Predict the 3D structure of the following.
Amino acid sequence: MLLGAAITFMAPGKDGKYGFFVSRRGSAATVAQEVADVLESGGYTSFSQDYDIGHGANFVAEIHKALKGCQHFIALLTHDYDESTYTQAEWTNFYKAAVESNGARRFIVIRVEACDPPGLFAGIVFADLVGVHDPRERRKRILAAAGGRSIAEPGGARIFENVPPRDLNFTGRDERLAELHSLLMDVEKPAAITQAAIHGLGGIGKTTLAIEYAHRYAGAYSGVWWANAEQRTVLVASLAALAGRLDRRLAEEPEQDKAARLAIARLAERSGLPILLVYDNVENPQTLDGLMPSGGARVLVTTRWTDWGGRAAELKLEVLPPLKAAEFLQKRAARTDQSGAVRLASALGNLPLALDHAGAYCKLTGTSFDAYRDKIDALIAKAPKGATHPDVFATFSLAIEKASSECHAAEPLLGFFAYLAPENIPLDLVTDEIVPTADLPEALGALASVSLIEHVTLDDGMPGETLHRLVQAAMRARLAEHAETAAAVARAITRLAEAFPDDGYSEPKVWPRCAALLPHVLALREHKTWDEASGVSASDLLGKAGLYLHGRAAVAEAEPLLREGLALGEKTLGREHAAVSNFLNNLASLLIDTGGHAEAETHLREAITISEKTFGREHPTVAIQLGNLAGLFRATRRYTEAEPLYREALAIHENAFGRQHPRVATVLSNLANLLSSLRRHAEAEALLYEALAIDQKMLGPNHPKTAIRQWSLAALCLATGRATEALPYAEAALAALEQSFGAEHPNTNGCAQTYANVLLTLGRTDEAATLRAKYSLDKSPASGPTAPPREYS
């Protein structure tokens, strides 16, 4: 008997036509009734085989009539749906009619069992009831599917970001995808099992499986966010970017760790469909401490770590079965040779990554599977001692040799990439010293043609490259074999040091560039292969990266970089070198913020001694360090020691640059805030007005430094009983700081606190309450204005 049900989305017309035909196997009869009930409860009438075919009626004829008269078709997908000749007859006939209707008739799939859509169904975005037990959520999904609507939450564009393109040759793991989806959607399990960890050896296909899952099951989520998670700092940066997508007010939050945690908190507050977070290449569970949402999301982890101790459902990935491996190899090579494919796949251990590159090589060169197998036998024997996958090493070595034969610049280019982070390498890092500009397109093409690299578009729209970690490992082994490691590392360090911005601490405009380069700095640091020749550039690079992280308030991540940069600089340059004095100064500035005042003072005094010996007491470098030592004294309430240092720094800067210079304005402002602490308000006010005039002229009215001057004036006016004069300064400062730093930055919050206190003093309590709520300020009224920040020179 035909197992279908006709349901109307409207009252049937006089011609007997209906809105929907619901096709099912017998196992889905209960869901078919649920669909009818949901539509009827939504104000629609329905016709169902389970309710409305009377005794004695011709069942087949009634179903035939309903199928011909329906406008749209719903298939309730179960694992056995496509096995029935009856359901096949139902959906195939309607599918043809739907295609010919030019969109007037819709073919709708609702998945009701954990299974992968077969054949043509695989290309259709389906609604999903698997693992959804809340009646309200099930009703929402059924109505959305019937109406042809997305079930993603309203309020902004649907998130689907950073997800790599799917592999169109994906083969042999449909059952694992279904198993993975079931694990992630089984909400009746404890909350911890909203995470799943795909684990296995390198090259086994963990990331490929996650990519396919993200694309195939995207309709089951309100969005997908892909994050590289090999280093916690990079993962935090990615989640900070997600925060800006979830709440635009967080887009410019400079404290990345805080922004990441706010993103996790925002996810937990969401209702409706969860978002899918993919954390790719996690080293161990500790990397994710504090970065797992308690709700509103499912987290998919790819990792080599095998024991997740109940923190995630584990899905171990093995090599492909022999026949599936041979099938994949033939797809990748675009040829049919079953026996040869089986032999080659076996020689490569049925490892997906090796199969992918072998197939690409055979397709490009026309090499037979057996001939390729003969080539790699000798290379496997040459694999580095202890290599986890000698077959992979052999495969990549052959591909590298092929690319190099096509273009001599291909191997040096891959050698440059070998020590950077594997994902999203900015192509503008490649200069003539690495590969001549004229040879670059040909080198990129040669490497891409054998699948050693993949062209990508970076967040800023510029071109970039991505490659597998095992490709990098193979290339590093080749460099070591030819004693070229040090030269390759030196090129990478030198180029990154040139490209990394100098002003990452204080200039938000360069933060996107710093964020893009930071993973590559961290990757180089992990290798620790720089020698004396590259040590100077390495110390410079580590110092710049540490300053950027300090500026983003990631002090825990910044401190080891600054310390390592100092140690490396001292080793290569000597303790008395001027560059070392800068490293000492920068580390001390961070220690002031973290409370390491005694160590900070020691470093600053030594830095001043070195700079004074090198440049003389009247040099601007000495002035910067004097100003920072004064800032330390101000932070520790040693005001009488701070004042003469500020005044000396001011005189040096004025002599070097003139009175109308931003450096002079910074010292004027710091000195003014010190004088305010000493209640010398008239002197402080005069200095602040002068500093404000300099910055307005030299930097512009909306620059964050200009805003800090206005904030300082607002605080001073309030402290001296002039709230009406304070109001316009506080208002202008807050607007500019939020524009530059974001709503959650400490400077923005501090200025908002001052503004709220001004409003309270003026009796505008409702406005003050609104402001305090917006910026999540302490609910108890503050007794006085929040002090403007200590600025580093």
User: Anything to note?
Assistant: The chain has 31 helices and 14 strands. Confidence is low (pLDDT under 50) at residues 1-15, 152-156, 779-785. Residues 72 and 106 are 5 Å apart (CA to CA).
